Amino acid sequence: MKENIPVIEMADSKEHSLQFELQTMEYIDEHRHNRIDHPHKHDYFVIIWMKSGEGKHMVDFQEFVVEQQSIFFLTPGQVHQLQTATHPDGYVLSFHNDFFCTTESQRELLLQTGLFYNCSQFKPYPVLPEQAAMLEKLLGLMQAELNKVDYMHYESLRGLLQLFLIQCSRFWGHSEEASSISSRPAWLTRRFLNLLETNYRKHTKVNDYAAMLVVTPNHLNETIKKTTGFPASDHIKKRVILEAKRMAVLENSSAKEIAHSLGFDDEAHFSKYFKNNTGLTFSKYRISYYLGGRT
Fold first, then answer.
1. Is the pTM of this model over 0.70?
2. Which domains does the chain have, with CATH numbers?
């Protein structure tokens, strides 16, 4: 699988395209002028499988050493920058939500496995030889489907992508977590993290999420701490601060603009919240970032 695989674009009546793309790391490296060489984000899902190569990958202001046979699952909106010191070998698989999510089970696969929508627990996963063989076989089938453009083409690609994600969820998702603790804590944790991802701009208190999940705030905090190591309150703070950092770096937003976007009463309230949770004033954080702090 050395040649580049083209992007599919399907225009629809909603004035946007549904996209799917599969490329080799070799192709991307050879066409570096087409890459964005600074922190950026996408409005689609990205899976980066590094089979070999050295470098570093910054994801949401955390820096990870790129190791051979590692895979990253990026959710729309996550800030990242991949820098490789050697010629990499691997694949980049990208797809839009609207391309994949045609059924509720597909939507649940993205939401519930823990591969995506995991800002507070993001990490790369090591790929074992037997896992690599299975995933590469599925990517080969996707490539063959892209090359021939035959009957039920899009449906076939969507089905292969679903199989790929199911295998990934079996390898690195929450199946082990669900079996190691009772299913109720695992379910509550996933539900909380999913609700947080869609409500952090409006709801910043544990009480709000406890009410949505019909549990007490203490029970929610204790359960989330048991399954993740941090109470629900910490996850909420981290998610709000992460979005503030994204807006500051990518959009060059002011403290006033961020405060308004994230639902704070005023700029002073936001500035106090930011300092309490990062140890830096907002202005010092921006200076530190652009001087290379990347925190």
1. yes
2. 5-173 (2.60.120.280), 180-290 (1.10.10.60)
